[in-house]
Design goal:
The protein is of the alpha/beta class. Helix content is about 45%, strand content about 15%. The chain folds into 2 domains: about 35 residues; about 220 residues, no CATH class.
């Protein structure tokens, strides 16, 4: 069958053209449709944060799943790194502590692997009220590392081995209790932002609650307030930013969000909570 006949038939079956439409006009319609198919509307061409989504690698060190949701015309993109975080009730549970350490190390790898080099990270559980105290604590830990490393001497191998063990122990405690984002902030590799309006109950709920949605909404407000086009958000996996973003976009047409959700490689609770729609 002539290659021209197939698009003509498709056009005739699916168009409102009158039966006597001249062949030349039909041909023009076909060419227009072919142009539309190969030249997307400017509104659909990725720009800004959506270009970041388009260029995101299909695999990232430390991640088992990457889901992307591009909103046309979005001014912001929230990148949710699904974490498992430390809780006092888990400190005597070796398996839980091991899982937390593993996942935080993977979040460290993910944040290190992704562009841009200087990321802005919103940290779950961190409020503006305790932000300065938290950052000062990171400086104290940094000075502890500097002191320990300065004590290493080639002349005293036993002392050096002991110090190395102390450094490793400190690294484990820091990564487990404070998390990957805090470690990267101490290393001056990310810029940390508070992500809570008030101290949060980090106990995982049985289902999404209004309180969780309020916390997620607060994060979106802070991202827009701080003008953070690419916002990395380290939050627990039970949070459904997809639904919150969908509602936000409906009421904020000039400050829309796209969305990326990243699950660490060893997260054993792989469940997609969001039902995000553009």
């Amino acid at each position: 069958m002539n290659k021209l006949i197939l698009p003509l038939l498709a056009l005739a079956l699916n168009s409102d053209l009158p039966p006597q439409t001249p062949l030349q006009q039909i041909l023009t319609q076909v060419e227009q449709q072919r142009y539309v198919n190969t030249h997307p509307s400017p509104a659909l061409i990725p720009t800004g944060v959506n270009l970041y989504i388009q260029q995101l690698p299909s695999s990232i060190s430390g991640a088992q799943q990457i889901q992307t949701y591009a909103t046309p015309g979005a001014q912001y993109c929230l990148i949710h790194l699904r974490q498992r975080h430390y809780k006092e009730s888990l400190k005597d549970n070796p398996q839980a502590m091991h899982d937390i350490l593993t996942i935080q190390q993977e979040i460290y790898d993910i944040l290190t692997s992704l562009p841009p080099d200087q990321k802005k990270v919103y940290e779950e559980g961190l409020t503006q009220e305790d932000f300065n105290y938290f950052m000062n604590s990171l400086e104290v830990i940094q000075q502890k590392y500097i002191t320990l490393k300065a004590m290493r001497t080639p002349q005293n191998q036993n002392s050096t081995t002991t110090i190395q063990q102390q450094i490793k122990q400190l690294q484990t405690i820091e990564m487990t209790t404070l998390g990957a984002a805090a470690v990267l902030a101490r290393e001056k590799k990310v810029i940390l932002y508070p992500a809570e309006a008030e101290p949060a109950d980090l106990t995982p709920p049985s289902s999404t609650t209004p309180k969780m949605e309020q916390r997620e909404h607060f994060v979106l407000e802070q991202i827009v307030k701080n003008q953070t086009p690419l916002a990395f958000v380290v939050y627990g996996a039970s949070h459904d930013f997809g639904d919150t973003i969908e509602l936000w976009n409906q009421s904020h047409p000039n400050a829309k969000f796209s969305f990326i959700e990243i699950t660490p490689a060893n997260y054993n609770y792989l469940k997609t909570y969001n039902t995000f729609h553009q």
